[in-house]
Amino acid sequence: MIAKLKGRLDSTGLDHAIIDVGGVGYLVGASSRTLAALGSIGEAVTIHTEMLVAADSIRLVGFARAEERDWYRLLTHVQGVGSRVALAILSALEPLELHRAVAMGDKAMIARANGVGPKLAQRIVNELKDKIGATPAGGPIDAGGVAMLPTGSFAADALSALQNLGFKPHEASTAVASAEAEMGDDASLDALVRLALRKAAK
User: Fold this and answer.
1) Cβ-proximal residues to 163 (8 Å cutoff; 6+ apart), any chain
2) Phi, then psi, of 196 in degrees rounded to 5
3) CATH 1.10.150.20 matches 66-133
4) Which among 109, 87, 84 has a CA at the least distance from the CA of 33?
């Protein structure tokens, strides 16, 4: 399993990037939002990945942030949402916007993505609403009453650490966001993970 690539951005296309890691070029499918976040050709990049294994192929899909990868996994478990549609949704909506849309049942916002009609948008809302935890206890809440996703510099690494320990995406997200709110932006990764673990275990 390839979970992350760290190397140099070799080139980009409409829906992919090539990451040079020690002289080996990895072709990574990506949303337009992730491609825009990678920076300029030749620059050092780190990209979170999901490896798709089929009978006749192995593909990598990449994400600038771990929470995008988590949403990709959630979306592709919905009937009718394949990799291409999931990336189209992540191109159209930030993770926080997607979280808000699902939590509030806003199928029109999800239907803004290419290839997503009203019926599929409704199915996404129906299947994911309970999984993401619309207003989990202990999580910071925005003005609309929706749980906030963590956004600090160590948030993606902290989220990944908790999920590697077996916590579900929404549990890890809520715990990290709550820990960030309590500790502030200057917290170290180690301290953030320790506090998030205590909150997630409650």
Assistant:
1) 66, 70, 169, 172
2) -60, -40
3) yes
4) 87
Residues, the chain: 202
For strand 44-53 and strand 24-30, is the pairing parallel, antiparallel, or unpaired?
A: unpaired
Task: Compare 59 and 166 and report the one with higher pLDDT.
Answer: 59
pLDDT at residue 151 is higher than 60? no
Q: Cα(69)–Cα(95) distance, rounded to whole angstroms?
A: 10
Mean pLDDT of 88-105: 88
Tell me the CATH number of domain 4-63, given options 2.60.40.1220, 2.160.20.80, 3.90.1640.30, 2.40.50.140: 2.40.50.140
Cα distances (angstroms) measured from residue 141 to each of 6, 43, 178, 191: 33, 36, 10, 22
CA angle 190, 7, 24 (to 5 degrees): 135
Q: Tell me how many degrees the CA angle 59-57-92 measures, rounded to the nearest 5.
A: 35
Interval 153-168: pLDDT, tens: 577 777 777 777 777 7
What are 3-56's pLDDT values in tens digits? Answer: 889 999 999 998 999 999 999 999 999 999 899 988 899 999 999 999 888 888
Q: What residue spans define the domains of the chain?
A: 4-63, 66-133, 154-201
- Residues 200 and 54: their CA atoms lie apart, in Å, by 34
Task: Say whether 66-133 and 4-63 share the same fold.
Answer: no
Of the candidates 1, 61, 68, 65, the one whose C-alpha atom is nearest the C-alpha of residue 38 is 65
